[in-house]
Amino acid sequence: QVQLVESGGGLVQAGGSLRLSCEASRRTFSNYAMGWFRQAPGKEREFVAGSSRDGANTWYIVSVEGRFTISRDNAKNMLYIQMNSLRPEDTSVYYCNGVAGEKPRFGSWGPGTQVTVSS
Predict the structure, then answer these.
(1) Taking the CB of the first residue and of the last residue of the chain, which one, N or C, has fewer CB atoms within 10 A?
(2) Nearest-angstrom CA–CA distance, 22 and 25
(3) What is the mean pLDDT of the chain?
(4) Beta partners for residue 114, in sequence order
């Protein structure tokens, strides 16, 4: 069972930037496509961005395309997402997980990290 721990969230003004990190416990981290999800209050958790196993291919939802960049360091079992030009509607708890397309792969979730964007 992989354990995931997200960090890097915070409060930022609209237009600002944050970089989130996800540490995975599993030594076979590099065997999995990984991604970021988010859940706003009262809404379902949604896929945000995905990375292939080697990081060569990435994909995003339309609303973050061009503003967010997902990356990974397989040697460190780390996944990242650089979020620029943040908007109030990006306010959510952000989670990482393995992905199959835009679906979560692992049954368990980490605690997430809160991102709050003020207008």
Answers:
(1) N
(2) 10
(3) 96
(4) 93
Residues 6 and 94: beta-carbon distance below 8 Å: yes
CA angle 87, 98, 61 (to 5 degrees): 35
Q: State phi, psi for 92 to the nearest 5 degrees.
A: -170, 170
Tokens representing residue 85 in the block: 């030009």
Structure confidence at residue 28 (pLDDT): 81
Q: Is there a contact between 97 and 109 (Cβ–Cβ < 8 Å)?
A: yes
For residue 89, the Cα-to-chain-centroid distance in whole angstroms is 16
Low-confidence residues in the chain, pLDDT < 50: none
SS3 77: coil
Q: Are 98 and 104 in contact (CB under 8 A)?
A: yes
